[in-house]
Amino acid sequence: MGAASFFVLASPFLAFLKRYHYALLRADILLCLSVMAVVAGMIGLAARVSTRAAAIALALVMTLLIDAQFGVLRDGYALVAAFTGLWAGLTFFARYFTPALATGGAVMFVATAVLPASADGLRPPAERTSGATSLPLIVHIVLDAHIGLAGLQDVSGGDRLGDEIEVFFRRHRFQLFGSAYSEYFDTYRSLGHELNFSPGEHVAGLYSSDGNSHVWTLRRNAYFRDLIRDGYALTVYQSTFLDVCGDARARAACHTYDHTGIAALQSVPLSVADKASAILTIYAGRTRLYRELSFQYAKLQSRLAAFGIRMPIWQNRANTFSPLIALETMRRLKRDMATARRGDYVFAHLLLPHGPYVLDAGCNLLPPARWLTRIAAEAPRGAMNTADSRELRYERYAEQVRCVYRQLEGVLGAIPAEQRHDAIIIVQGDHGARITMTDPDPLPARTSALSPADFVDSYSTLFAVRAPKLAPGYDERMVSITCLLKALADADYENTLRLGSCSSEPEVFLSTASGKIEARQLPSFD
Predict the structure, then answer these.
(1) Contact criterion met (CB below 8 Å) for 480 and 180
(2) How far apart (Å, rounded) are the C-alpha atoms in residues 94 and 55?
(3) Which CATH superfamily does the domain covering 138-268+321-521 fall into?
(4) Are 33 and 279 in contact (CB under 8 A)?
């Protein structure tokens, strides 16, 4: 039973490694397989207790195989149903089925190790096309979770970081909107409405999810459609978190990187144990069992907190290395910029400076002991941070922001000189840093817990644009990024005179516990 369990556990794991082009003959992978061998041995020992225990162990192993290899168990009920059905069926046949499972598992293990890797499951990019040479190059970069300059005013060290950012954009002759804001807390809603020119309203049906709340597809993209109609050829760099290429009428060459992938781990300076731990966590995080356990743990944590019993936060490390993967994509963008042509529209959504905060200002990986997510484990119930933990996270966030600008300098510098003189370049965020004391979305039961700073942390975001007929400088108007893009596109990037037609009292749209969307006035950033 132990051998059968090992082969069944290890085969999907090897397939996962090969799918994401991770070398198998490495010390960290051998350590991962050793851990699986120990688990398999424990299952094998448990199976020797009785026939019933053997059936339970076998049903568990088969359920894990179905979950990890095929991904068809959509919720906790399906997980329980699969286990129960297998248990019932194997109660009388476990002793006969185990040898067959061991043999089949061994064959599957060897075949997985030897045969070529399967496709990574991502949509292959469409062939690059040529746009109209009469049109200037447009480069549009979205830096996920980049707070705006006005949002940095009350953050420790924020003035210094804000000055550095302003100097950067001034030197590159951008018009910088320091008080720009997002109307939404979440990326898919924010970019979904911006790319469909829908300021000041919530529009249903723009995006959809496949049931995983961390994977979204934009079903309508009016901005991309307009660009194609005008004669542009579109190239997109995006993560698996949000697919902006889901509109069949907005054809683009879309390069999608898996923000939870592991390939970047091979070259980072981490110990074998740290790498093995990260790989196993990322792998487990893709299974329904892991997600269900984390969900049930959160429910138990909430119930115990009502009695004053605090449990550690379940730190999901599945996205721990997303900044490294985004950083590599940014470097690829720099290389590809060298071949940019007139009539090209290049869109890049990068999960930087989005947390976790693992990079220093020089883009070097910090020691694991210094890694931070935006949420502090020591925060009281219902809160994201304490005052001290918020300050610490903004310090680490600032270093990651500086790393971003180090790379952005190279991207802008790689634009060919013959395209640079009239190129249109937009650099923006999608929402704030979201290093809050209390998240405003979903709207908490006690709205009195929310402070103006929570709204600033969540919605203040970056927006800067460079175009031949736009005067560089700093604009203090408080205006949404959706309104900004609409006004610029309507004026062919020549002016922002139409901002008044879509900007009024600043509002944001919050989701409630019942799933409804409510408009709330956004406090001033002053």
Answers:
(1) yes
(2) 5
(3) Alkaline Phosphatase, subunit A (3.40.720.10)
(4) no
Report residue 214's pLDDT band, with 50, 70 and 90 as the boundaries.
low
pLDDT at residue number 269: 79
DSSP state letter for 367? P
Give the span between the Cα atoms of 17 and 265, in whole angstroms: 12
Detail the DSSP E strand segments found in 284-393.
Answer: 344-350
Q: What are the b/e assignments for 156-190, b being 16+ CB within 10 Å? A: eebeebbeebbebbeebebbbbbbbbbbbbbbbbb
The alpha helices in 246-318, defined as continuous H runs, are 272-284, 288-305
Strands of the 424-428 sheet, one edge to the other = 253-257, 233-239, 344-350, 138-143, 424-428, 463-466, 175-177, 473-475
What's the pTM?
Answer: 0.84
Q: For residues 506 and 182, is the Cβ–Cβ distance under 8 A? A: no
- Domain positions in the chain are 138-268+321-521
Alpha carbons within 13 angstroms on the beta-carbon side of residue 155 total 34
Q: Please count the helices (runs of H) and the strands (runs of E) in the chain.
A: 15, 13
